[in-house]
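This part of the workshop introduces the protein records we will be handling. The structure tokens are whole numbers drawn from a learned vocabulary of backbone shapes. The record below serves as our worked example for the rest of this section.

===
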Amino acid sequence: VQLVESGGGLVQPGGSLRLSCAASGFTFSSYYMRWYRQAPGKERELVAAIGSFDWITTYIDSVKGRFTISRDNAKNTMFLQMNGLKPEDTAVYYCNARRQPYEYWGQGTQVTVAS
């Protein structure tokens, strides 16, 4: 089983990034997928989630209207489009897959928002 994030980097405030999470080794389409982030000195927090078959999406309030989570089951990939980035979005972003009792994590990708 593997979850591999990519797309992180350094961006100026107001800029955009698109994170990807490539999955392998499990039936991606049947898993509930989520993006988490962890900033230095803070606990990991759930940022966005997308359902396995209904594709219903949820977001934390601080990213609503700026971030969009999506998935491509044909390519076993999840995305997080991040627009209007703010310095407080700086964190390591992690991909998570869950279908009880199984849960998998990626290694994370760094997003830094700074001028």
Remarks:
- The two ends are 37 Å apart (CA to CA).
- The longest strand covers residues 91-99.
